[in-house]
Amino acid sequence: MFSRTIVGSLVALFALHAAAVDKTSNPDLVAKLKTAATQLDRLNLLPSDSDWLYDFTSHPYYTFQPGGVINANAATFPATVGYGMTLAILNLGPCSMLPPHYHPRASNFVVAVQGTTDTYMIEENGARRIQETLTPGKMTIFPQASIHMMVNT
């Protein structure tokens, strides 16, 4: 059983991350993409080749300094609507961690670019914990709604 201090700390931690959300760049387009009947209808809503390209460096909060996180997801990159995924550029500083959190609407794909990062994930009560070590060129997936965290070792 968790103590009240631990539960309070976890609630505070999740509240902190609840404030870190992406603003939907084009709500009308996202709504239309969600209700498109066919893939052809989706393609007609994204008529330009550039609609299929996401430039992390053009995001207003882009930084590749430690602590920087930029997400490509339905809010920031409408072409991802319906695929249930988020791809992020994250720079964890030396000996730092991304605390336990979850994404209720999307799976998170993580690719290591440099360094060594330990990842931890549990999908639901009773499931085993999955732990992996990412080094450059390796990838892991955090399924939708799984609780996960990362530590830069």
TrEMBL record:
Subcellular location: Secreted
Predominant place of localization: secreted
Signal peptide coordinates: 1-20
Sorted UniProt keywords: Manganese, Metal-binding, Secreted, Signal
Pfam families, alphabetized: Cupin_1
Top-level division of the source organism's lineage: Eukaryota
Domain Cupin type-1 residue range list: 59-153
PANTHER family: GERMIN-LIKE PROTEIN SUBFAMILY 3 MEMBER 3 (PTHR31238)
Family: Belongs to the germin family.
Identification of the protein by name: Cupin type-1 domain-containing protein
Organism encoding this protein: Cryomyces antarcticus
